[in-house]
Amino acid sequence: MSEPLDLKEQIFLLDKLPGFYKTLSSNSLNGFNYTNDDSNFKSPRNSFQVIKDIPEYFELEYKQLPKNIKHVTVEQYPGFSISFEGINDVNDYLKTRFGNSSRYKLRRSIKKLEASFDIKYKMYYGEMSKEEYDFIFKKFFRLLELRSIEKGILDNINIKRSDYFYKKFYPLILQKRASLFVIYNGDNPIDICLNYHNNSIVYQFIRTYDIAYSKFNTGYIDLIKQIEWCINNNIDFIDFSFGTYYWKKRWCNTSYKHNYHIFYNSKSLLSIIKSKVYVSKIKIKHVLRERGLIDKYHVKKQKLKNTIKPLKKTEIKISNIDFNVEVNIGDEINIYETEHHFIKKTVYDFLFNFNANEKDIKVYEVLDTSNKYLIIGNENKVIIDAIFNS
């Protein structure tokens, strides 16, 4: 059996239609058209082909297939997206999804982030040096790896394909068929989103961020800034693909279905059997997914993995102290050095909680104790106690 082909990857990344289709278009998207230049069709003999993750807003015209080539369509998971029809600016859109209190919290997150760090936003689209690309891509997959570990995902398929993506995406960015949106603290990327593009559509492929900044909700800030960019650049539609997460339901104003197309050779008994087995399998998965049983399975499976391969963690205890209390401190430490990375998130939480700026805080070892540190700002200070668990 051939590996299933992801239709979005085929058209966005490889710029081609699988051989079964003549054209692809969408009435809801301006300028979204693909034509299959290859008029030849090679009939499978004893196997079959699966085309997966086909959004229902894709309108596919089949080639004139041989009579023995049949196909079945099977519905799978929902997808989520944002349509900008009738939207004038980012605030206009946020008003359609969030109440006053939620919009205030989002604005506060942006203000806190920009007040605490040297923040800049950059969309790499059509122009990017190779040096910038190499630096950001390396950082991107390191952040994705750390985020995956935090979430308990030990076998992220996108990380396994990092070398493949690295080779593919740079020319696509120069051709305006892909982009990298980056939030920087100084020269350090702290939130990165990799997108596909086609005229009026942006497809958010992989998103990740530095977990040390999680208190600042950089993922939501990333969304706001990209929505703003899309509206300013006449984008009609952002596709966040499948994965039923709370944030997608909250932020997205449209949803759609993904389908699978299963092609098989009706003159081959083996091909018929394979297709029936495959169709039955994904129909069962769809039912289980609808009932929430697949999510429960993955949770239990991950707990088992974590039991077998426990991750080393550091527990941090925080004690607020009066600013005027003297503490017996040793040398100042650099939280950006590898051996001190475990307290960086706690330091950034301190910045968020006390509206402090990164350049105004210092961190010291506390003498006569083990693994205790003092964080001190202009008006506040705390002692943190690091407990290493293995």
UniProtKB/TrEMBL annotation:
Q: Which residues form a coiled coil?
A: none
| InterPro entries linked to this entry | Acyl_CoA_acyltransferase, BioF2-like_GNAT_dom
Gene3D superfamilies, per the entry: 3.40.630.30
Segments forming domain BioF2-like acetyltransferase: 101-249
Superkingdom of the source?
Bacteria
Please give the Pfam families that the UniProt record associates with this protein. Answer: Acetyltransf_6 (PF13480)
Kindly provide the name given to this protein in its UniProt entry.
Answer: GNAT family N-acetyltransferase
Q: Which organism is this protein's natural source?
A: Flavivirga spongiicola
